[in-house]
Amino acid sequence: MAMAGEKGWGRRFVIAVPYLWLLALFLVPFLIVLKISLSQDMIAQPPYAPVFDAAAGWAGFKDFLSQLSIANYFYVLSFDNEFIAAYGSSLLIAGISTALLLLVGYPIAYAMARAPKGIQPMLLMLVILPFWTSFLIRVYAWIGILSPEGFLNQLLDALGLISEPLQILNTDLAVYIGIVYSYLPFMVLPLYSALEKLDGTLLEAAEDLGCPPAKAFWTITFPLSLPGVAAGALLCFIPAVGEFVIPDLLGGSDTLMIGKSLWTEFTVNRSWTASAAVAVLLLLLLVVPIVIYQNLQARELEAGR
């Protein structure tokens, strides 16, 4: 009985650890940011009000709640500032980047899954290898590659393909290149995991029945790899929407993304409250695809029972 009790407490502890982790590192910070978003800017320390005073008791708590306001959300969602345009531009850039990542990553993952078992670990290491270098250094390297006097223009000029340098840096194209390069492993790894588990006998049976390879891919391989497609798309789309470093370093002044707008609101305008409202709305916006994905996964599990 004592051993069973110890095992029961051990199971509860193992289950409780991730919940405590989420509570401490996600829920509590989110509630702090949410509270700041409902506050008003002040020239004080901290630079917003109200601030809850526990010594004031219940009356102080009611006074604290009465001073909270959603005015910052009306400000962020108003059409006389750039935030709505920034949200739309971020979603568009992240969506196009995710589609490009899928187009580039799927053939790589497919080739890795079809490679001999002996070299698959080496191929996986090559995909993961960029993570061994600082993300910031890798993005800075693209400045040297894409600049008018950079390696790419020098190569194209040496090949006689251009007569004057191409203006790629400080454009949306450079942002797409940076995002695709930086997030490619996040697309390849889930796709490889899904494709590597694919039952090869299904394709052999399709071939025996006279199914062309292209048709077999679209009717068997691709549908069975959709969980990997969905996981890779979410892993790339969600961080790409809030990306700041890549558009700031590779994009131009016309590149509008919500990460840059949030940074400007926080550092230039010194508005903690509006910045917090932008962050909360961005989080709510990104929760939608996660909820949709979880619902689809739940339906698939129910259908499989």
Give an overview of the whole structure.
The protein has 305 residues and is mainly alpha-helical. The protein is built from 14 helices and two strands; from the N terminus they run αββααααααααααααα. α8 runs antiparallel to α11. It is globular, with a radius of gyration of 25 Å. The two termini are 35 Å apart. The mean pLDDT is 87.
Strand and helix layout:
Layout: H1 2-37, E1 40-41, E2 48-49, H2 57-66, H3 71-76, H4 83-114, H5 120-128, H6 135-146, H7 151-158, H8 172-196, H9 200-208, H10 213-224, H11 226-241, H12 245-250, H13 258-267, H14 272-304
Antiparallel strand pairs: 1-2
Biggest beta sheet summary:
2 strands, antiparallel
What structural class is derived from the secondary structure elements?
mainly alpha
Rounded to an integer in angstroms, the radius of gyration calculated over CA atoms is 25 Å
Mean pLDDT over the residues: 87
Spell out the helices and strands N to C.
HEEHHHHHHHHHHHHH
Q: Kindly report how far apart the N and C termini lie.
A: 35 Å
Low-confidence stretches: none
By DSSP, the count of extended strands is 2
